[in-house]
Design a protein that fits this description.
This is N-terminal ig-like domain of cellulase. The chain has 839 residues and is α+β, with helices and mostly antiparallel strands. Helix content is 26%, strand content 26%. It has a 16-stranded antiparallel β-sheet that branches. Strands 21, 22, 23, 24, 25, 26, 27 and 28 form an 8-stranded antiparallel β-sheet that branches.
């Protein structure tokens, strides 16, 4: 105890806690600390994404979230969340107050945050006492990110403890009748324990808590007159955080709870510069502009140096370049370093003051292999209904042989799934739909099939095949035995085999269900959060209602774990599926003629049926759906050459471009090679307008690419922007520069805010170390997956954590993003080869 106190005092001379101010962005701030008070709300669809409530950005790292009245010791994602009724910022009294409500319990609370001394006070105010059914359950929580506190200690009332690297604290079980229900009756707890649920017990409790006393960057002091408990939320879910909690007292109103919170800050602290550059490298003739991201209290240096590795194995200065200030973007200052004059191939690094980057290449062929991990590894691992092997490792056995059942009526599911008042099929609720255990990809880090994403992937793969003639063969795929072996050629182009695999499930939907469906997903929340081998998410035995749960006759079982198909019909999805299948029929011709014929026949049928449904009384096309018929007509025309589809396309294209230029410009460009000069001339005006719009939007940031300000990262936005620029460049080279194609790749390869890691797993010298895939609990990645990148937390914070994989908005790799990336990488390589040839 004496040693620990001495250890703390050793930092006293270099650390302090400074007075918080309420800034113009309506959060509390001091140097090295931001306190956000419901700048970001809980999500009404995905519930707790760990991006809401009272949050700490501590020395520019978001380390705490979820400050709110909650109903569990360690809330899981799908537990009930409070709705923010209002938020009041009182500039005069330097206070932020929010009103929260649990509608199901008619329970309101108010949180009031006020600076005090070297920290701030959080007060919980009740106008009515805690409802009886919430007594002992409602409490105030703050959650602290485990990865920020690994290898650190804590003190509670002077008693030391170690933050556990892996959860091993005590739990107990209680009767489920005492549990606060999760949303819509769902339950994350295994149904074999329906009569009980797990309750974590605190690591320690007391009235004075210090987190990481030995670490001045992470030290936080919390004091209260009421008991403070410290929990490890990972006992219930691997994505849980360390939770600090106090129970609200019963039968009291007014200020019922108060915490004093004092995060330590370091005197004159400055965030280290982030030097953004492409971890893959650059071509000799390519523009090379690094972006330096600086603390708002920091100013750019005058110059920086580029060092090159010489033949003796030593790095020597190749260029001393001017650092040009750019200005402020969101919360940081920025500068740019242009080293385009260096065109000699080799290995380099950037030296900016005391900060030296890792090395990178300048070479003629830097884009030639960057897409291989995505095609060779990521997509095979995402293949549903297949056993997937890689050398000594089996990624997953053959999953979902028990696909699938008709979803029940009027059912609100999780992850955005919902079944309406009709099935729009011939099947009754929970009736088995035959023939569905074939093809398809896992949508992302979970194991559901989302049909629209399949449509996007199929269409993108066809375009890659037709544009670049990709014939790479590094994967053995056997549809008869449903077996995949990675890094084992089988004599067939992998991209054709992947197109076939996606089409097989889409065709099965139409043939067995009657039309494309919203998606296919497990019925239970305790299955949905499954990690690891996909083949163990169900028992792979068809559901038999005549058997008891977990009883089996060897061919079927009484366990209701088979995935459900959500089948409400959408003309938007019919049109988009028709377009993808029409495109696939071209690619599959000569490879799988029978399937190719099915594709075009189904595409025509879906198109006609969608037309009829669109004419039905009361039918309203969503904003996302408008223009989808035009996409189908374009692909049907390209495949069949029939004038009716061309005419329909031309009758629609200008209208949808006027309505939403950025959303529809790509399809207008795709049709260019098949249209006349009048079409190209008319489209030119739209292309000029598109370029003007995007240039204006991208001028607000120093990277010159679109940066999405939302809760899902914008890697795909940058990729698709570059793809559009490539399509424009091919037909209107005077409007778009070749660098507008490369810029999107540079961005995802490391020239972006927050860090300089490549957002493509295992691509580039330094790339993401963790990602939200099926192996996220192992703090690992799947090579070739493209993470969403930077999420935006209001009002000014962009984040992408590489020490915590469970933020899906930052780190979950989705299949359509991977397909688009493959196209863009090949486009860049094509342009690079063309430039070399022209020289």
């Amino acid at each position: 105890m004496i040693l620990m106190s001495s250890f703390i005092l050793a930092f006293a001379q270099v650390t302090t806690a400074q007075t918080l101010i309420l800034n113009d962005s309506d959060y509390f701030e001091s140097r090295g600390l931001n306190v956000l008070v419901f700048s970001n709300e809980y999500n009404g669809e995905f519930f707790d994404e760990k991006t809401a409530g009272i949050e700490l950005i501590h020395h520019e790292v978001r380390t705490a979230t979820g400050g709110a009245v909650r109903l569990h010791h360690t809330p899981e994602q799908w537990d009930l969340i409070p709705k923010m009724i209002n938020r009041t910022v009182d500039k005069t009294n330097k206070t932020i107050e929010v009103k929260l409500r649990y509608e199901a319990y008619d329970f309101d609370s108010r949180l009031k945050v006020t600076p005090k001394g070297k920290g701030f006070v959080i007060s919980v105010v009740l106008d009515q006492p805690v409802p009886k059914e919430l007594e002992g359950k409602a409490g105030f929580n703050m959650e602290f990110l485990p990865s920020s506190y690994f290898e650190s200690n804590y003190l509670i009332d002077g008693k030391p403890g170690i933050f556990p690297r892996y959860p091993a604290s005590n739990t107990l079980t209680k009767s489920s009748s005492q549990k606060i229900p999760q949303f819509a009756g769902h339950n994350t707890f295994d149904d074999r324990g329906r009569d009980e649920y797990i309750v974590p017990l605190p690591l320690e409790s007391g009235k004075n808590l210090i987190l990481a006393p030995e670490n001045p960057e992470r030290r936080v002091k919390i004091q209260s007159e009421d008991e403070i408990m410290l929990f490890d939320g990972r006992n219930l879910g691997q994505n849980g955080w360390y939770v600090v909690r106090s129970i609200l007292p019963a039968n009291k109103t007014g200020e019922v709870l108060s915490w004093y919170v004092e995060p330590n800050t370091i005197t004159d602290w400055l965030r280290e510069p982030v030097i953004g550059f492409s971890q893959v490298g650059y071509m000799p003739s390519q523009e090379k502009v690094a972006v330096v991201e600086l603390d708002k209290n920091d100013q750019p240096l005058k110059t920086a140096s580029i060092f090159q590795l010489n033949e003796e194995g030593e790095f020597v200065e190749k260029l001393k370049a001017d650092v040009k200030p750019w200005g402020k973007y969101l919360r940081y200052n920025y500068a740019q370093l242009d080293f385009s004059s260096i065109q000699e191939t080799g290995i380099y690094y950037i030296q900016y003051g005391d900060y030296k980057t890792n090395s990178f290449q300048i070479a003629n062929d830097i884009y030639s292999k960057v897409w291989h991990p995505t095609m060779d590894v990521f997509f095979p691992i995402q293949m549903d209904h297949m056993e997937v092997n890689e050398a000594y490792r089996t990624w997953h056995g053959k999953p979902f042989a028990d696909d699938c059942l008709q979803a029940p009526l009027n059912h609100k599911h999780f992850d955005g799934y919902e079944q309406g008042a009709t099935t729009d099929t011939k099947y009754k609720p929970l009736e088995r739909i035959p023939g569905m255990s074939v093809g398809g990809w896992f949508d992302a880090g979970d194991y559901d099939i989302q049909t629209f994403r399949h449509v996007l992937v199929i269409a993108s793969f066809v375009e890659s095949w037709e544009t670049f003639g990709i014939d790479r063969d590094e994967t053995y795929i056997d549809q008869k035995t449903q077996y995949v072996d990675i890094h084992r050629p089988d004599g067939q182009p992998d991209i054709l085999q992947q197109i076939e695999h996606g089409v097989l499930n889409l065709v099965a939907q139409v043939e067995n269900i009657g039309h494309p469906v919203r998606g296919i997903v497990v019925p239970n929340l305790h299955q949905y959060h499954h990690l690891g081998d996909a083949s163990t998410e169900t028992d792979n035995l068809s559901y038999n209602p005549s058997l008891k749960p977990y009883e089996s006759d060897g061919l079927s079982s009484g366990t209701l774990d088979d995935r459900w198909a959500f089948t409400n019909r959408s003309s938007f999805l019919d049109y988009r599926a028709a377009g993808a299948l029409a495109a696939a029929s071209r690619a599959l011709k000569g490879y799988n003629d029978e399937l190719a014929d099915k594709c075009i026949n189904i595409a025509k049928r879906l198109f006609e049926e969608a037309n009829e449904n669109a004419k039905a009384p009361g039918h309203v096309m969503s904003r996302w759906g408008r223009g989808s018929d035009m996409i189908a007509m374009m692909q049907l025309f390209l495949t069949t050459g029939e004038e009716q589809y061309k005419k329909g396309f031309l009758d629609n294209i200008w209208k949808v471009l006027d309505e939403s230029l950025e959303r529809n410009i790509d399809y207008a460009l795709l049709a260019l090679p098949y249209m006349d000069e009048a079409y190209k001339s008319k489209l030119r005006g739209y292309v000029v307008k598109y370029k003007e719009n995007t240039d204006k939007e991208n001028a607000d940031n120093p990277y010159g690419v679109p940066i999405a300000k939302r809760g899902w990262g914008g890697s795909s936005v940058a990729i698709n922007w570059s793809i559009t620029n490539y399509r424009i460049l091919k037909s209107y080279p005077d409007i778009v520069d070749i660098e507008d194609v490369y810029s999107g790749l540079n961005y995802i390869f490391g020239c972006h805010p927050y860090s300089n890691l490549s957002f493509v797993n295992a691509v580039g010298n330094k790339s993401k170390k963790v990602a939200y895939g099926s192996n996220r609990a192992d703090f690992s990645t799947i090579a070739g997956g493209v993470v969403p990148g930077l999420i935006f937390l209001k009002p000014d914070y962009l984040e992408n954590k590489d020490d915590w994989p469970f933020f899906w908005g930052e780190n979950e790799c989705i299949i359509d993003g991977g397909a688009w990336y493959i196209f863009l990488a090949n486009a860049a390589e094509e342009l690079a080869k063309s430039n070399l040839k022209n020289k």
